[in-house]
Amino acid sequence: MSDESANREAVSEERDAAYWSANVRIITISLIIWAIVSFGFGILLRPMLSGISVGGTDLGFWFAQQGSILVFLALIFFYAWRMNGIDRDHGVEE
Amino acid sequence: MDQFTLNLLFVGASFALYIGIAIWARAGSTSEFYAAGRGVHPVTNGMATAADWMSAASFISMAGLIAFTGYDNSTFLMGWTGGYVLLALLLAPYLRKFGKFTVSEFIGDRFYSSAARMVAVICLLVASITYVIGQMQGVGIAFGRFLEIDAFWGLLIGACVVFAYAVFGGMKGVTYTQVAQYCVLITAYTIPAIFISLQLTGNPIPGLGLFSETVNSDGTASGVYLLTKLDEIVTDLGFAEYTAHHANTLNMMLFTLSLMIGTAGLPHVIMRFFTVPKVSDARWSAGWTLVFIALLYLTAPAVGAMARLNISEMMWPNGTDGAAVSVETIETDPEYDWMLTWQKTGLLDWEDKNGDGLIQYYNDGSEAMAATAAANGWEGNELTNFNRDILVLANPEIANLPGWVIGLVAAGGLAAALSTAAGLLLAISSAVSHDLLKGQLTPNMSERSELLAARLSMAAAIVVAVLLGLNPPGFAAQTVALAFGLAAASIFPALMMGIFSKRVNNIGAVAGMLIGLIATLLYIFLHKGWFFIPDTNMFTDADPLLGPIKSTSFGAIGALLNFTTAILVSRATQEPPQEIQDLVESVRVPRGAGAAAADH
């Protein structure tokens, strides 16, 4: 293996590592939101939201039956959109 | 035209459509049989995956469970949608990059061991067959109703139809058929919901109607929210308040988590993401799938609440202070015809216990009601049997909707159950023929005998599911929830660690999967009976072995055991070889993803 190709290999490895940590960061943020809207607002934190009334019940009930689903949708599309950008920034797109 | 003929017509027409598509897109080669070529667009794939995913549990059973429990069963809604976030972020893109056909192929390669692949196959079979049992229950109920026979015979007829249908085509036929099935099932679910929402709230969007004010019969706003009214009626009858939180919080959270992790661990759903052209398409595909699922899931809580209100008002036509409905009304008034037809399936029944000619529907387990009941001479709840699983199918009849809507719902319920059963049978048959036989036992098998083995294993799976389905461990959605617990405890952790850790090795993964599967299966059998045979259980979900943790929620604990075991065992044993660590590196970046290939 020539010096040049070894060098290129090292650069590509570094780039892949940077790409992966960017990915893991977005996944972590998304999963925190995922947990807050479902386990949080929908179940555990519902008493805290009970003061905010929504159509005959409270915000926690809405999150448990509809709100969390809408947030899940937004999260997946945000992730797909953001990752496509990150793929390009790191030159790892197909 | 009478209702029976109308039902037959709708069900028959929808079946003709599916079979037509299956013949048109018949699978020719093994690769088409499993993965439908590469040309499936993310939106098409999303729609087919949604049909594959939304089963009898979502369509037939879920709204009924929400209707009779209220807020506490929101867990089904969050659990079965939240799993798609895990799937999209943690699994789908990497498994697509890996580029093989089956889940167990990934596990076998990543954990460089045929033992790991075999264990994955076993986990997959256990979870899928449990899932098929739930589908068979749904098929049985739907056939029972529209042929107006006992649900047992409905189950047997349904099993034959599912089998004939699943062996017809492989994935290719199934993909396009499932697009058609999605259209049928979503229309069937939404149309009655729109009608009912208009009747009750004047809002044409059921998901919004749920949080709207009810309207009076002349169309003017009553000033009372639907949910407030429902809370009042059910508490008047001694039931728990609809919107309030009654269940154990820890169990609710574990149950939701089990369903979420299980969703991301189910082989027939994951397999779908192998068939998109690119890694970025796998990410979009998961999003589109959830869009199509959300259309039903945002409507389901409205269906549940509105049906509960309608039923309560039907049983108490003069209000909860007035007289209950009379036996004579039920038997003669056409508005109550649905009760007579459902009685024939054995899933709905009533009995005038105190002989007053009226059917009092109330919660006879409630202490607060004891005084009222005694004062009025009631001798227990007289709506003696109301199977939760009939609610969605009976809903249009309860709301007095036109006959064609009822026929459409019957077709939709069957579409939901059939599409999922077919997808599961495909996952089962590919596990047996591709992973077990071709991958391990008889590698030199011809394509022809591989296809034959695939079809034989489908037949065997149906027989097992019917036998176990004779004593279902719960309502359809609850049976299905057990399957999710099993997938959560076994498959998902292995897949996730295979991608996110380079350190987890062959021994760790195998130990983790075995511990997760066995612990969860044991916990289920201890509470539901060995192989679901009645009276062989040592505990009940009313008083579970471990604190508040019911057998349906144990999957999350099983997953935790799986992760812990795999990580500890891997630390104590050798690091995976360099080429495996390189494989992990390579699945993490999209660059260089070719088409998926079978390892022939």
What report would you give on this structure?
The complex is a heterodimer of chains A (94) and B (600). Helix content of chain A is 82%, strand content 4%. With 94 residues, chain A is mainly alpha-helical. Chain B has 600 residues and is mostly helical. Chain B has one domain: Sodium/glucose cotransporter, CATH 1.20.1730. Helix content of chain B is 68%, strand content 3%. Chain B has 25 helices and six strands. Chain B has helices spanning 3-24, 30-35, 42-53, 56-69, 74-98, 103-110, 114-146, 151-168, 171-201, 206-209, 226-236, 249-263, 267-270, 279-297, 300-315, 327-332, 337-343, 367-376, 391-398, 403-441, 447-469, 476-500, 506-528, 554-572, 578-588, and strands at residues 213-215, 221-225, 325-326, 348-349, 358-359, 385-386. In chain B, the strands form three sheets. Chain B has a two-stranded antiparallel sheet with strand order 1-2. In chain B, strands 3-5 form a two-stranded antiparallel ribbon. A two-stranded antiparallel sheet of chain B has the order 4-6. Chain B is globular. Chains A and B meet through helix 1, strand 2 and helix 3 of A and helix 5, helix 11, helix 12 and helix 14 of B.
The major pleated sheet of chain B works out as:
2 strands, antiparallel
Number of strands of chain B: 6
> Main interface pair?
A-B, 41 and 51 residues
Query: CATH homologous superfamily of chain B - what is it?
Result: Sodium/glucose cotransporter
Q: Which architecture of chain B would the CATH scheme give at its second level?
A: Up-down Bundle
The major pleated sheet of chain A works out as: 2 strands, antiparallel
* Widest sheet, order of strands of chain B: 1-2
- Helical content class of chain A: over 70%
Could you tell me the mean pLDDT of chain A? 92
The quaternary organization reads as heterodimer
The string of secondary-structure elements of chain A, in order, is HHEEH
Q: How far apart lie the N and C ends of chain B?
A: 55 Å
Residue fraction in strands of chain B:
under 5%
Based on helices, strands and strand pairing, what is the structural class of chain B?
mainly alpha
